[in-house]
Design a protein that fits this description.
- This protein is mostly helical.
- 80% of the residues lie in helices and 0% in strands.
- It has 8 helices and no strands.
- The protein is globular.
């Protein structure tokens, strides 16, 4: 087994663990995902996966493919079991994200394509962050930290390094860890306010 395949399998294992924790938390009634975030992430993970495959990422793309499939499941669960307080800001995030997809389609340069994917993916965090500000216990911080590890290990699984193959997973290392930290800090802030 090549080192890239090894890290590809490790990254999938980390994503599977992250999703298992998140799904278990949903079915226990603790986590209430925001369907808009997961719908954006499902779409963008699928696009990111296709772009990585096209650019020769090899096993470095496996986690994105697995992520796209599981994000679809979480988007559906978010609709049925998730956040019901949908704001104008949430709708704006969804519309802006999906309006940016045609830009990705018409962009012929791989670098610009991956930059647009990164921007759209980041927009997907806004509905969850807005919800988590008021309800930080309705998100699983540990699943976001484990997703960080998935993206980190997927960087070592890339066969051909170009900005198009490494930028998106690198962004996810930052984004997922930042959201996990945000959840912990916000929980700590609320517990101090209650004292």
């Amino acid at each position: 087994m090549t080192h890239t395949a090894f890290f590809g399998f490790v990254s999938i294992a980390m994503m599977a663990l992250s999703r298992a924790i998140y799904l278990a938390s949903i079915f226990k009634g603790k986590t209430k995902p925001h369907a808009f975030s997961w719908l954006i992430w499902a779409t963008i993970s699928g696009i990111g996966f296709a772009a990585q495959v096209a650019e020769g990422a090899g096993p470095g793309s496996w986690a994105r493919g697995f992520s796209a499939a599981t994000c679809c499941i979480l988007a559906v669960l978010g609709y049925y079991k998730g956040e019901k307080d949908i704001t104008k800001g949430d709708w704006t995030s969804l519309v802006v994200a999906f309006c940016a997809i045609p830009l990705w389609i018409i962009t012929k340069t791989p670098v610009w394509s991956v930059l647009i994917v990164c921007i759209i993916d980041t927009i997907g965090y806004f509905p969850t962050i807005r919800k988590a500000w008021n309800k930080p216990y309705e998100e699983s911080a540990s699943s976001y930290f484990i997703a960080t590890l998935c993206s980190f290990f997927s960087l070592f699984a890339i066969e051909h390094y170009t900005i198009s193959t490494w930028l998106y997973p690198a962004l996810l290392v930052f984004s997922n860890s930042a959201l996990g930290i945000f959840l912990l800090v916000r929980r700590g802030s609320l517990s101090h306010q209650q004292v």
